């Protein structure tokens, strides 16, 4: 095995950097995935909590679409690039403290904060989802 092959295998960080530079040169963007995927149990639990908090089917579905894309329903998802945190990817995550001191670990607190944010900024989760669809962020 040549030294250059060993270096490429031993240096995934350099390979990722090279891929990012190549993508940027081609006009593409690499996006960071949430830090870890939600377990099916935690995702379904967070979804059940949200469903109770958002009884209107249209608004729940819009909220769910955003959360699925932002965090995969993982309440501890952290964006490695920006530091955005939680189900709704608040930036900084500590903003969610306004909804409860347990914002880091309680999906209900994160959902409450996210719902309040969507309602105050966009008027509803459905309007936030329409914005997300047009811009791929909200």
Description:
This protein has 6 helices and no strands. The longest helix is centred in the last third of the chain and has 16 residues, at 107-122. Residues 1-37 have low confidence and may be disordered. It is mainly alpha-helical and 138 residues long. It has helices spanning 3-10, 12-25, 40-53, 57-71, 107-122, 125-135.
Helix content: 55-70%
Give the number of helices.
Answer: 6
According to DSSP, the number of beta strands is: 0
Distance between the termini: 48 Å
- SSE topology string: HHHHHH
Structural class: mainly alpha
Low-confidence stretches: 1-37
Name the beta content range: under 5%
Question: What shape does the CA trace take?
Answer: globular
What is the radius of gyration?
A: 18 Å
Multimeric status of the protein: single chain
What is the arithmetic mean of pLDDT? 80
Major sheet summary line: none
What is the number of domains? 2
Question: Key features?
Answer:
138 residues, mainly alpha, 6 helices, globular, disordered N terminus
């Amino acid at each position: 095995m040549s030294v250059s092959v060993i270096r490429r295998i031993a240096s995934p960080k350099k390979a990722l950097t090279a891929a990012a530079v190549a993508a940027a040169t081609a006009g593409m963007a690499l996006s960071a995935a949430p830090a870890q995927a939600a377990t099916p149990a935690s995702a379904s639990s967070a979804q059940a909590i949200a469903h109770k908090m958002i009884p209107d089917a249209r608004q729940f579905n819009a909220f769910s679409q955003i959360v699925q894309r932002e965090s995969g329903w993982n309440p501890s998802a952290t964006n490695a690039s920006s530091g955005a945190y939680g189900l709704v990817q608040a930036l900084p995550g500590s903003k969610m403290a306004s909804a409860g001191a347990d914002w880091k670990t309680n999906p209900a607190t994160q959902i409450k904060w996210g719902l309040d944010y969507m309602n105050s900024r966009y008027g509803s989760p459905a309007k936030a989802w329409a914005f997300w669809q047009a811009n791929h962020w909200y």
